[in-house]
Amino acid sequence: MFNVAHVLSPSMVTALAAHFKDLNPKPLGGAPRDLAPAGKKIYDEGLPDANVPPCASCHGPEAKGEGAFPRLAGQLHDYLSRKLANWSKERGQDPAKPDTSAIMEPIAHGLTEQQMAAVAAYLSDLE
């Protein structure tokens, strides 16, 4: 996505974000369904012992996004799992241009690989 997105003007990014936020795609499925209940619990309640807040507090109760926080509902399981696992390597790497994604680094770091997979399984089947 970077190869395309880095040439977009701020107004183009805003317009595209608004357009995609309002779409309501059907989930493609394919996630391990047995992990979804644990993922829903993390999404709704967080992990207080690991200082991980509920995902819903930023991304909304239906994971459809809230303000600067993106929609997660219906995203592919493998994509979500990889993004969470690689957050520190892929996001917020330009200190001269910090972005709102920095808030996610300690959250992603506070999840185990199994917990990331569970949250991704839950989200991937939401509409």
Give an account of the 3D structure.
With 127 residues, the chain is an all-alpha fold. The protein has one domain: Cytochrome c-like domain (Cytochrome Bc1 Complex, Chain D, domain 2). It contains 8 helices and no strands. It starts with a helix and ends with a helix. The mean pLDDT is 87.
Characteristics:
mainly alpha, Cytochrome Bc1 Complex, Chain D, domain 2, globular
Helices and strands, with pairings:
Blueprint: H1 2-5, H2 10-22, H3 36-45, H4 56-59, H5 77-85, H6 87-90, H7 105-109, H8 113-124
Helix pairs in contact: 3-8, 5-8
Structure described in brief:
The chain has 127 residues and is mostly helical. It contains eight helices and no strands.
Total individual domains: 1
Strand content: under 5%
CATH class: Mainly Alpha
Whole-number radius of gyration? 15 Å
Mean pLDDT: 87
- What is the CATH-assigned architecture? Orthogonal Bundle
Number of strands: 0
The shape is globular
Number of distinct helices: 8
Q: Termini separation (Å)?
A: 23 Å
Structural class: mainly alpha
User: How much helix is in the residues?
Assistant: 40-55%
What is the fold-level CATH name, i.e. the topology? Cytochrome Bc1 Complex, Chain D, domain 2
Biggest sheet features: none
Oligomer: single chain
CATH superfamily: Cytochrome c-like domain
Order of helices and strands: HHHHHHHH
Low-confidence stretches: none
